[in-house]
């Protein structure tokens, strides 16, 4: 089964997400990947072989767009690496994204260790 997986990261965490995606490119490749704009750019640069669709940047509504996709049943997993040590100007949008992921019981990972467990648990297996 092909999934749509949202990949999002705050600025300082974008390199970590890009590296995580590189380690799991084989598992990610068969799926539809959607990212906020800036995160998608970093992922594409590090992983040119992965097809990545983008929505707007997080502060410009991208978090809300991904939340809408979750509510519509169009995103089946969220991998979001937030920066726990930096304040975010769009914190309300981030909280709304997390809330909608919880409401719709979407599998989520918020750091590389948990994202690795989603892969090891077979979420991305086809």
UniProtKB/TrEMBL annotation:
Its EC number is 4.2.3.3. Substrate binds at residues 10, 14, 57-58, 90. It comes from the Bacteria. PANTHER family: METHYLGLYOXAL SYNTHASE. Gene3D superfamilies: Methylglyoxal synthase-like domain. One of its GO terms (molecular function) is methylglyoxal synthase activity. The gene is mgsA. Catalyzes the formation of methylglyoxal from dihydroxyacetone phosphate. This is Methylglyoxal synthase. Belongs to the methylglyoxal synthase family. The active site is at 63 (proton donor/acceptor). Keywords: Lyase. Residues 1-126 form the MGS-like domain. It catalyses: dihydroxyacetone phosphate = methylglyoxal + phosphate. InterPro entries: Methylgl_synth, Methylglyoxal_synth_AS, MGS-like_dom, MGS-like_dom_sf. It holds the Pfam family MGS.
């Amino acid at each position: 089964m092909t999934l749509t997986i949202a990949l999002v990261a705050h600025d300082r965490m974008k390199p970590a997400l890009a590296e995580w995606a590189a380690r799991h490119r084989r598992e990610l490749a068969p799926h539809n990947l959607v990212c906020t704009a800036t995160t998608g750019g970093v992922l594409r640069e590090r992983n040119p072989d992965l097809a990545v669709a983008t929505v707007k940047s997080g502060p410009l509504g991208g978090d809300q767009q991904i939340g809408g996709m979750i509510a519509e049943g169009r995103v089946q997993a969220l991998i979001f690496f937030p920066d726990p040590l930096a304040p975010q100007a769009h914190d309300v949008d981030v909280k709304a994204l997390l809330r909608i992921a919880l409401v719709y019981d979407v599998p989520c990972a918020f750091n590389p260790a948990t994202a690795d467990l989603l892969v090891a648990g077979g979420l991305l297996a086809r």
